[in-house]
Q: What sequence folds into this?
């Protein structure tokens, strides 16, 4: 028993270490093809002792990989622990479900006759490689949707560091799920080779719970050719995809990146200082640019400067605290409208001053501004959004986008507004509302899809937005994705690099270049093949002048979504449910047999 437990620990730790070495800082991406091999070997391990090693090892892997989240706030260590604990559940369930499936595939020779039923015979001939890959991808699909979803550290991201991203071009077919599926196939093939070698050696297998040889069914023996065909298919598809012609656009955007330290609740003075720093840098960069700039892009929340963009709806109602005069003289609806109108005029005036300074001494039109900015909408109720505004050449706000996917614990706490005692304790910033649906900004005839903050780290957000716009009018599909983020919270940790990897996969999946403007994060220009064309060094202020190339492809992923992965997710959930029901049934039978 001690020997088995030691092997289980070594195997689980090995998988975690291999995955970590494929990540930022090491980028040993070839290891990704065998990273899950030790974990898959545990599927032939019949002892329950594998559960603790697998869970503990992957908890450590996720905790160390995402430890940069703790820099955002002293209390973020608690959500970090919860997130690592949650993500580690999926590798554990992968091993449990695969082991249950494999029981009829790998059994002592004298017990082979127990496979009697038609279902068991069919299952014994189903390739384990396909089952394992489906189980892993099904779990990834579930975690991309459950509890608002998260895509960071998907298995497929481990290949984002490839110098020539040939093998990851299949993302435009199946999303990052397709790359994950491929990597599980290769890991199963490597595990099959190991198991076969131990069997032919004639010595007792240290991965079994007895000293008897194992019988390997056709389900295991097909893993190598399946993995080979899949890898070859991915390579040749990727090689062809990388040769697809793209056209140069007539639009030039300047991405502004800085590394301004931010606090969770910072005062108005600090917000204005940050705004002024971005304004000075932008004015200097545009005025000195040898080519005309059509639009400048500021990171998340940097355009606010303590002054959000206010919107008055037709059904505007004065909030109770203002109507009753709780914090000052009571306001009427006409007075509220006048205040909002004055605030909008001040906002436009400020924009015009910056644009005039940018174009001083030049005959070029002032560039538009795409900037992260708070948005407050007053209708029947007041709602506050984290948003993006498109400022036209005349300084007016031409379009807005409200962030759809909020950061759990950072921008909202589930159900807290439904608890009267806790509702009043919600700090500023945790009362944000979520926007609904995409936007498409028109910059001189060049259309861009705005994304904000974590939305590129939840892959389905950008893909769903592109699909929605494609269904509305395929001829007006955005030609690039502009993503604005503030990653200064994470203090130059690996979280920033993981965020960039997510954006690379989104660029391939949507077949659109991504222009990322960040504060303390990945200010980068990524092409529609997922290649980083240009990137600012970490911790440095600077600009990237991007003239993104237009890719005319509408990917299968955008057209039809993650259909294969969704089927696997449903089957994964069904399999987990059956396992739980069987567990309850077995406990009930044992109680009856014991007379309880």
A:
């Amino acid at each position: 028993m001690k020997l088995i437990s030691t092997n289980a620990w070594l195997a689980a730790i090995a998988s975690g270490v291999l995955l970590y070495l494929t990540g930022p800082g090491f980028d040993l991406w070839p290891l990704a093809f065998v990273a899950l091999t030790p974990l898959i070997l545990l599927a032939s391990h019949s002892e329950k002792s594998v559960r603790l090693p697998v869970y503990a090892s992957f908890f450590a892997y996720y905790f160390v990989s995402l430890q940069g989240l703790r820099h955002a706030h002293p209390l973020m260590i608690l959500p970090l622990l919860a997130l690592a604990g949650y993500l580690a559940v999926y590798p554990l369930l992968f091993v449990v479900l695969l082991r249950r499936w494999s029981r009829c595939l790998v059994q002592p020779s004298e017990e082979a006759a127990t496979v009697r039923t038609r279902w068991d015979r069919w299952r014994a001939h189903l390739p384990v490689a396909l089952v394992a890959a489906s189980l892993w991808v099904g779990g990834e699909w579930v975690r991309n949707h459950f509890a608002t979803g998260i895509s960071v550290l998907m298995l497929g991201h481990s290949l984002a560091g490839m110098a020539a991203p040939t093998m990851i071009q299949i993302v435009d077919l199946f999303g990052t799920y397709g790359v994950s599926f491929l990597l599980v196939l290769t890991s199963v093939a490597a595990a099959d080779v190991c198991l076969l070698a131990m069997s032919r050696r004639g010595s007792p297998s240290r991965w079994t719970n007895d000293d008897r040889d194992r019988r390997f069914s056709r389900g295991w023996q097909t893993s190598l050719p399946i993995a080979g065909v899949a890898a070859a298919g991915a390579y040749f598809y990727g090689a062809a995809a990388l040769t697809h012609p793209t056209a140069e656009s007539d639009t030039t955007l300047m991405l502004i990146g800085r590394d301004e330290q931010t606090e969770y609740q910072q005062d108005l003075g600090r917000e204005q200082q940050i705004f002024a720093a971005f304004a000075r840098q932008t004015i200097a960069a545009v005025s000195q640019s040898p080519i005309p700039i059509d639009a400048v892009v500021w990171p998340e929340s940097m355009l606010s400067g303590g002054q959000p963009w206010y919107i008055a709806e037709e059904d505007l109602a004065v909030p109770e605290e203002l109507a009753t005069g709780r914090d000052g003289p009571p306001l009427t609806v006409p007075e509220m409208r006048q205040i909002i109108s004055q605030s909008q005029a001040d906002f436009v005036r400020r924009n015009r001053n910056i644009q005039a300074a940018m174009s001083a001494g030049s005959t070029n039109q002032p560039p538009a501004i795409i900037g992260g900015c708070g948005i407050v909408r007053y209708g029947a109720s007041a709602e506050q959004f984290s948003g993006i505004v498109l400022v036209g050449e005349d300084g007016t706000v031409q379009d807005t986008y409200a962030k759809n996917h909020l950061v759990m614990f950072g921008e909202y706490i589930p159900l807290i507004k439904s608890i009267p005692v806790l509702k009043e304790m919600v700090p500023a910033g945790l009362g944000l509302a979520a926007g609904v649906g995409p936007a498409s900004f028109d910059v001189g005839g060049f259309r861009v899809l705005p994304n904000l903050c974590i939305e590129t780290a939840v892959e389905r957000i950008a893909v769903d937005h592109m699909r929605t716009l494609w269904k509305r009018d395929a001829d007006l599909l955005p030609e690039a994705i502009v993503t604005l983020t503030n990653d200064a919270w994470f203090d130059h940790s690996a979280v920033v690099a993981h965020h960039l990897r997510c954006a690379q996969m989104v660029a391939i999946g949507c077949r659109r270049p991504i222009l990322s403007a960040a504060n303390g994060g990945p200010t980068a220009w990524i092409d529609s093949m997922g290649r980083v064309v240009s990137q600012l060094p970490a911790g440095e202020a600077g600009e990237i002048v991007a003239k993104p190339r237009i890719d005319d492809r509408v990917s299968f992923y955008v057209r039809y979504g993650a259909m294969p992965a969704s089927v696997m997710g449903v089957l994964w959930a069904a399999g987990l449910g059956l396992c739980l029901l069987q567990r309850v049934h077995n406990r009930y039978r044992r109680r009856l047999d014991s007379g309880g």
